[in-house]
User: Fold this.
Amino acid sequence: MSLLSLVALTGALLALVPAAWCCRAHRASGRGEPAAPRQSFDLELLEALPCPVFYKDADGHYVGCNAAFAEFLGRPRDRIVGRSVFEVAPRELAERYAAADAALVAAAGVQRYEVQVESADGVRRDVEMHKGTVRGTHGAVTGIVGVILDITDRKRAQREVLELKAQLERGVAERTAQLEASNAALSAAKDAAESANRAKSIFLANMSHELRTPLNAVIGFAQILERDEALPDDKRRQIAAINRSGGHLLALINNVLEISRIEAGRMELHHDAFDLGMVLDAAEEIIRIRTEAKALSFVVERPSGLPSFVVGDATYLRQVLLNLLGNAVKFTEQGGIVLRVADEGGERLRFEVCDTGPGIAQEEQENIFQGFYQTEAGVAKGEGTGLGLAISREIVHLMGGGLELTSAPGAGSVFAFSIPLPLAATVPEMRAGTRIARLAAGQAAPRILVAEDLEDNQEVVRQLLQGIGCEVEIAPNGHEALARFRAWRPDLILMDIRMPEMDGFQATRLIRALPEGRTLPIVALTASAFEEDRREILAAGCDDLVSKPVDYEHLLTVIGARLGLRYERVPLARSPVAREPGGDLAGLPHTVRDALAMAAEALDGEAARDIAERLRHEHPAEATLIVWLVDSFRFEHLEALCRAPAGG
Ligand code: ADP
Assistant:
C-alpha cells in the first residue's frame, strides 16, 4: 500500500474508529448497546490494518487500539486500554505525546508530526503520527484517534538521497574548483602566449621596418638604373640581379612578417577596383623570364570574355599567383607551366597553375601547406622558406576560396583556387606592358616637397621625380617640412612618417591646421607593416599611403591621380635573360666544393670566380655554371649545390 493511499485511508478511518471502539469500550464496561453489524465490520477492518491505530479519551487515556498498536508497544491490549500515555511510553516520549494531545484538543482539528521511537523489538524507527479529535453530540472534543505510519524506510531513503545529493554537490564543487583552476592556468597560458605573440609581431614588424628602409634605397636606385636604356647589356644584367636579390630579400622579410600577421590574426585584405589583365600580365612577365632561363614552355590561358576590371585585393592575388607560378618553375626541369584563368560564373574566377614537375606524394600533400615545411626536393633546392604555400592558402581563404592541390609523383602538380572577383563599377587608370616615361607635354612642372630624413632615400625620390619633369625640394624632418611648405608652397608633399625632431604625423597635423594646408595632397611614405599605423596615418590627415620600399610606378600613379597629371608612357623594356647552363657540382673534389661553399656563404663572388677559373681546364661545365651563378648573384643556389651529397 502506498503511503498516500494509507494516509487517505487513515482520514476515512478517523470517522469510523470512535463509534466502533466506543461500543467495544462500553461493552467492556457493561454500559453500551450491542455492536451493530456495520460497526463490527469496521472493527475487523481496523484489526486487519497493518499500521497501529489507537483511540484515547479527551484526558489522554487509551480507550481502544488495534492489534498492530499492541504489537507496536509490545504489550497486550488489556495493559493499554484504560491507561495513560505515561504508563505505556518512555517518559520523554510520553511528555511529547501529552503536549501534542493537549494542543490538538485545544485546536480541535487534525495533527501530524514525526518522532523517533524504539519499537518493542528494540529497533529505532521513524514514525509519522496522524491524530484527529473526536467530537460529541454537542461539538465538544471527547477523544483523539491516532494512526501511526512507519516511515523508517522512507526516511532512510530520504537520508540516502540527501547524502547522495551532498556527495554530488561536493563532487561538483570539487570538479568546478579543478576546472576553475585549470581554466585559470589555461587563461594564464593563453595570456602569456598572446603577449609573446604580440611581442613577436612587434619585434618582427620593427625589424622589418629597419630592413625595408635601407632596401628602399637599394631597390630604388636599381629601379632608376633599370630605366636607363643607354646602359650596356652586362650592366643591365647586373642591375637586374640587384633588383632580383633585393626583391628576394624583400619577399623573405614580407613572408616572415606575413606569417606572423596570420598567426596573430591580423591579416587584412584591401578591396579596390583593379585591372585583372594587368595583374596577369605582370605575373606572366616575371615568370616568363624564369621559364625562358630554364627552357620551359609557359602558356597563359585567358578566355577572351574575362572581365577586365574587377574588385578585389590585387596585391594579394598577385602574391598568390607569383608564389604558385614561382614554385612551378622552381621545381620543374622539363616540360612547362600553364596558368589557366576561367570565369566560373556568379562573379567567381578560377585560377589554375599546372606544371610537369616531379609531383607531390599523397602523404606530403597536407604537410606542404604547413609553415616552414619543405619536401626533400624543396630542401635540396636550397631556396625558399617553406612559407609560401602556408601564406597563399591563408590569403586564398581570406579572399573567399580554398587552395586545392591535385598531384602525384611523376605526374606534375595542379594548384587551383576560385575566388569572388565582382566586376568593378569604376575603372581606374592603369595600363599594362608600359611604364611612365615623363610628364606629357603642356603641363606645368608640379612642385613636390619630399619630407624624408635618410639621404639615400631622398636621392632616389629626387632623381625619379626630377627624371619625369617635377620640381623637387627636400626637407629632412617635420620642422623643415612645415617651413618649406610655408615658403615654397608645393603642390603635393611626400611625407615620410618616422623622422627625427618632428615626425610625419605631427607635421601633417600642423600643416592641416593651416588654412592653406587644408586641401594640399599629402602622401605618406611608410615602411611600417602595422595595419594600425596605416589607419593612424590616414587619421592624421594624409590622403594616401605608399609603402616602402617604394614601387615607383605606383608612386607616380598616386601622385598623378592626386594632381590630375597626364603621363607619357613607353613600352616596358625586358631585362636581357641569360640561360642557366644547367648541371651540378657533384663531380668536383669535396675540398673544392667546401671552399666554394664558403665563398658563396660569404657572398664572395671574386673568390668563387677564381676557383671557377682554376677548374675550367678539367671541369669546364662546372666552371661555366659557377660563373653563371656568381654573375646572377645566386649564391644560395651555389652553396646548396656545393653542399649536396657528392655523386647524388
Ligand atoms: P618554398 O617554395 O619556399 O620552399 P612553399 O611553401 O612555397 O615554400 O612550398 C613548400 C614545399 O612544397 C616546397 O619546398 C616543395 O617541397 C613543395 N612544392 C611546392 N610547390 C611545388 C610544385 N609545384 N611541385 C613540387 N613540389 C612543390
